[in-house]
Structure formats: structure tokens, C-alpha cells
Specification:
Blueprint lengths: L2 E9 L3 E3 L9 H11 L3 E5 H5 L9 E5 L12 E4 L2 H6 L6 E6 L1 H7 L5 E7 L8 E2 L8 E9 L9 E8 L4
Parallel strand pairs: 1-6, 1-7, 3-4, 3-6, 4-5
Antiparallel strand pairs: 2-8, 7-10, 9-10
Length: 168
């Protein structure tokens, strides 16, 4: 059975980004994302995929789009037209990640077994994309690791790992 983990960085008000860009730069969070997702399939919406300068190395990208003519000429990219189709492509894997954006997180949450959330300690009122509210009736915090502001990080942040309380 595949473990599905949603992974995101979201502000205190659940802001994810604006105009298909992140609202912060956290190098340690990028390193953690790379460490956790490398070698696994990553499920994302088309806009999230298009926010990357190029496909991320050592990961199979499963891109969800309604556009039946959408194509990506890269061997590590698969195009599907629903979350259900994306989940079928990972059913033989031990672990796969849902990496965004906001609508894909909403659709994916009922299928997820865990959430790896980097909580950015700030609020961004100008955001146009948000992470879903985490329901503590469904999710239990299992780990947390705080990182203070430093010369490379303008915002403090905390890595939070949530696990589903009961079976899906």
C-alpha cells in the first residue's frame, strides 16, 4: 500500500504563494524538500509544475491538468487529467508526495496518510493560493522542529509532521 504524503510550506494564514511564486526564500526548507522527495513520484498541478525552471532531478513528475492537449517533452514527466489517475500511477510505490498547488492539496487531503508542513512564521495577505486548514480531529502532530531567523532565512519556521489519526 502506497503511503501518500502531502508536503508544503505555508504561512501562519496558510498562504502558499502568489502568481505561481513562493512568498519567501528558505534554503533549508528547499534542502529538506529535496531530501524527502528525491527518488519518489511527486504529484502536482500544472501551475506548480510550470513554476519550476526545469523538472526536478531524480523524481518522476505526475502533472494533473484538465488540458487534454498539454504536453511536456521530458522522460520524467507524466501527464494525467485527474487526481485519481495520478494515484493509480503510484499504487505500486512505497511512498509518493503531493506537492501542490492549493486545489491539488484540497483534492489530495482525503487520500493522504501524512503531511510534512513547513509552517512559515509570518502571514501574507497578498497570497492567492492557500493550503487547506489542518483538522485536528483528523490529523495528529507527531513531530516539530523550530528554525529561527538567521542570515539565510528572513522568517522563522517550524517543520511539522502530521499523521492521520485513523484509517482513511
Amino acid at each position: 500500500m502506497t503511503k501518500i504524503t502531502m508536503i508544503a510550506a505555508a504561512a501562519e494564514n496558510n498562504a502558499l504563494g502568489k502568481d505561481n511564486n513562493l512568498l519567501w526564500h528558505l534554503p533549508d526548507d528547499f534542502k529538506r524538500f529535496k531530501k524527502l522527495t528525491t527518488g519518489h513520484k511527486i504529484i502536482m498541478g500544472r501551475k506548480t509544475f510550470e513554476s519550476f525552471p526545469k523538472p526536478l532531478p531524480n523524481r518522476i513528475h505526475i502533472i494533473i491538468t484538465r488540458d487534454k492537449n498539454y504536453r511536456v517533452d521530458h522522460e520524467d514527466c507524466l501527464i494525467v487529467h485527474s487526481l485519481e489517475a495520478a494515484l493509480k500511477l503510484v499504487q505500486e510505490d512505497d511512498l509518493a508526495f503531493i506537492i501542490g498547488g492549493g486545489e491539488i492539496y484540497k483534492q489530495g487531503e482525503p487520500h493522504a496518510d501524512a503531511i510534512e508542513l513547513t509552517r512559515v512564521h509570518a502571514s501574507f495577505e497578498n497570497a492567492d493560493t492557500f493550503f487547506p486548514e489542518i483538522d485536528t480531529e483528523i490529523w495528529m502532530l507527531s513531530e516539530g522542529e523550530y528554525h529561527a531567523i538567521d542570515e539565510r532565512h528572513k522568517f522563522g519556521f517550524t517543520y511539522l509532521t502530521f499523521v492521520r489519526k485513523s484509517e482513511k
